Amino acid sequence: MNHLMLPFIAVDLIITIVVIAVVLKLRGNLFVMAMGAKAGTVDPDQMRALLAFSREQHARIREYMRINYSGMPEQLPSVITTLLDEVERSAKEQNLPIDRAQLKTMLAGSLRILGIGKARERDEAFARVA
Questions:
Q1: Alpha helices in 40-118 (DSSP H)
Q2: How far apart are the C-alpha atoms of 62 and 116, rounded to whole Å?
Q3: How many CB atoms lie within 10 A of CB 56?
Q4: Helix or strand or coil: residue 42?
Q5: How far apart (Å, rounded) are the C-alpha atoms in residues 71 and 92?
Q6: Distance (Å, rounded) from C-alpha 5 to C-alpha 115?
């Protein structure tokens, strides 16, 4: 290997790490930004509450799916409906400015991140969920 290639590889590695870090940071805040944009002006306290809710619910979604979903695609719509009802109830209890459509988006993102079902199966299930 040519010794002149090493500086280019090092620079490339540093740039790659920085890009990955920025993307991960944006991805974590993307949900909160999307909720703020849809709900109108949201103060910083509401943003923090939405972010905390999102993180809390992601852990809850993982556990719920582990317990209640066997992996059968035909079961997915009913499991999603029940889980969505529970998440919506939690959001209302915490007086969060978030509606069912936004919760549905959050739930879909969590299921995608968790690798629950195939993309087509998830899309079909969410299309059937009100």
A1: 44-68, 76-93, 100-114
A2: 9
A3: 13
A4: coil
A5: 29
A6: 38
Q: Residue count of the chain, please give it.
A: 130
CB under 8 Å to 5, separation ≥6 — which residues? none
pLDDT tens digits for 75-117? 999 999 999 999 999 999 988 888 888 889 888 888 888 888 8
- Which tokens in the block code for residue 15? 């740039």
Q: Determine the Cα–Cα distance for residues 15 and 50; give it in Å rounded to an integer.
A: 31
Q: What is the dihedral of CA 57, 58, 64, 66, to 10 degrees?
A: -170
Per-residue pLDDT tens for 54-80?
A: 888 888 999 999 999 998 999 999 999
Tokens for 39, please give them.
Answer: 């709900």
Q: Please give the model's pTM, rounded to 2 decimal places.
A: 0.64
Interatomic CA distance for residues 106 and 104, integer angstroms: 5
The answer to whether 111 touches 117, Cβ cutoff 8 Å, is: yes
Domain range enclosing 117: 5-128
Angle at 77 between CA 34 and CA 98, to 5 degrees: 25
The structural domain count of the chain equals 1
